[in-house]
Amino acid sequence: xxxxxxxxxxxxxxxxxxxxxxxxxxxxxxxxxxxxxxxxxxxxxxxxxxxxxxxxxxxxxxxxxxxxxxxxxxxxxxxxxxxxxxxxxxxxxxxxxxxxxxxxxxxxxxxxxxxxxxxxxxxxxxxxxxxxxxxxxxxxxxxxxxxxxxxxxxxxxxxxxxxxxxxxxxxxxxxxxxxxxxxxxxxxxxxxxxxxxxxxxxxxxxxxxxxxxxxxxxxxxxxxxxxxxxxxxxxxxxxxxxxxxxxxxxxxxxxxxxxxxxxxxxxxxxxxxxxxxxxxxxxxxxxxxxxxxxxxxxxxxxxxxxxxxxxxxxxxxxxxxxxxxxxxxxxxxxxxxxxxxxxxxxxxxxxxxxxxxxxxxxxxxxxxxxxxxxxxxxxxxxxxxxxxxxxxxxxxxxxxxxxxxxxxxxxxxxxxxxxxxxxxxxxxxxxxxxxxxxxxxxxxxxxxxxxxxxxxxxxxxxxxxxxxxxxxxxxxxxxxxxxxxxxxxxxxxxxxxxxxxxxxxxxxxxxxxxxxxxxxxxxxxxxxxxxxxxxxxxxxxxxxxxxxxxx
Length: 551
What we know:
Structural class: alpha/beta
CATH architecture of the largest domain: Alpha-Beta Complex
Helix content: 25-40%
Distance between the termini: 57 Å
Strand content: 15-25%
Largest sheet: 6 strands, mixed
Number of helices: 18
Number of domains: 4
CATH superfamily of the largest domain: inorganic pyrophosphatase (n-terminal core)
Number of strands: 22
Strand order of the largest sheet: 17-18-19-20-22-21
CATH topology of the largest domain: inorganic pyrophosphatase (n-terminal core)
CATH class of the largest domain: Alpha Beta
Radius of gyration: 38 Å
């Protein structure tokens, strides 16, 4: 089995640092010989789009969740035959490969049904149980092939009733013997064969024979009777003939199937309630991909994931609890991601995850390519608000200048381009604005959502204020947030405009007591630029204080 790649992902509603860190770290891992795949958890914003476009870098593919699917585990390869295959051949294939189930498919692998050992046994024993329906429908060519014989006479109309009789010399002179529409197995004696033909047998199987007399052939043609010769003896022929039944007659078509892309959790909910040994796995075109059984549901290898720019479950990919987190590269507070085994966890007090990744390139003695250096520089500029954010450190500035030299760009010009690409709200819906960079936080027992976006001036916010507040109100209801806060940051004014809603909206006033002013009817927080270092800690402190007051 080919080893699955390690997925590298940033957070939901990704910003520039989340996307660029994902791409850059994936490239570093590739240079170090590791099999990785960068992914993203949401649409890229205008700022990120500009940065990637400038350096001709494609965004990672969008993946909604990392829950284990059937496609992610080793399933059994199916033994297959086409529907006209005899149960003899099907049985042989099952014995050779030690399988108790065989799949019946079209030539293009479209699934038709399944057959089991017990089903095949029932087919073989059907005549002994006075069930002649299968052998009655069995084509002459299947019978001849199973008996390793030759079809000597093919009648105009084959008319068996399914009863298998043994032709006997002792009975040849008996007038009451009538083989009408029966399959008669005879010896090599022509008189035995003629007796069966003249009493209207549907098929005569001449054993221990490679040919029959011309008299027998003439009689068979005249009486519309088929003739097959076989070198097998009478006993072996009688044992094998029911194995000529086509598999399609005994296969089961009432199947419980699973799609190749079904979640394993959904499969686990179905299999224990049913009684089958194996379950076909098909793709969207019903092509057979393999078989799954109960033992596949546990003990499989989990997907491996590297998290960048976050370490909180609420911000991570859906199904993260089913994956194995092998690394975390972040610069935020320690969240609630847990691991079952030791993992690399690099968390630094620095302005950007891309700064950490730049350091990792240097620590591994590698120089990032021009386009990688360019997007990491863009991410650092974005996350530190061109070095104006209180989260920015001298290390961020030093690394940014090194990256600028590799990328061949002027930092201030690049920063202006990024800011202009992201700061306009024109053409964006209220939902677009709120979800551009919205993060969820769990603070004690409170569920809090905090979004942030850059703006050029407050005019665009004023015109949308009522719509934004209504949207935040309904967002709190639908997502069960206790508080939803939007930060509209204006780097030129070195502060942020705040809008918020929720049943615990009073927490914002507590968090920024004495810091909020009013500008054009909007709450303005001078000096507040960082969600991570200024807003989230202030809210957490306010919640803790409020809880203490009410206990």
